[in-house]
Amino acid sequence: MAGQIRMSPEELKSKATRYGQGANQIEDILRQLQNLQNELRGEWEG
């Protein structure tokens, strides 16, 4: 059964949308962490 998609096109589209939304959330979190890291770097002495 390898290589077969066992869901309807609608289900596949829905899951692909959710997957993309999750990827966007991860990118947002990484961006927030990068901004925080930059703030901390600016505050660091020594």
TrEMBL record:
Mind telling me which InterPro entries this protein's record contains? Answer: ESAT-6-like_sf, T7SS_ESAT-6-like
Gene3D superfamilies for this protein: ESAT-6-like (1.10.287.1060)
Question: What is the top-level taxon of the source organism?
Answer: Bacteria
Protein name, as recorded:
WXG100 family type VII secretion target
The species is Bacillus thuringiensis
